[in-house]
Amino acid sequence: RSVVTWNSMLCGFSQNGNSLEAINLFDYMYSNSLETNEVTFLGVIQACSSIGSLEKGKWVHHKMILSGVNDLYTETALIDM
User: Fold this and answer.
1) Where are the PPR repeats (predicted)?
2) What are the DSSP calls for 16-43, one per residue?
3) What integer pLDDT is reported at residue 76 of this predicted model?
């Protein structure tokens, strides 16, 4: 599976009211060292925002910084969180 496939699943969960599934999928991707990109982080940050999970959102933001993602859309999503 490619990052596009994983992102499609993650964003699909996030945008259709399954935020916990999106977060769990991100955890799976991260723990298995699967490729992530700005779309991955955008989807999971939106999921964290949707359920009010500030602590998880902070953790995701930290991982985003470590991975070198610097994207305007993702940074804007952090403001909503």
Assistant:
1) 2-36
2) TT-HHHHHHHHHHHHHTT----HHHHHH
3) 82
pLDDT: is 17 or 78 the higher one?
Answer: 17
Residue at 34: amino acid letter: L
Per domain, the residue ranges of the chain are: 3-80
From residue 26, give the alpha-carbon distance in Å to each of 2, 31: 14, 8
What is the spatial distance between Cα 79 and Cα 56, in angstroms, rounded to a whole number? 15
Rounded distance between C-alpha atoms, residue 18 and residue 76, angstroms:
21
Task: List, in order, residues 6 or more apart from 25 with CB less than 8 Å away.
Answer: 6, 9, 10, 13
Tokens of 76: 């804007």
* pTM, 2 dp: 0.89
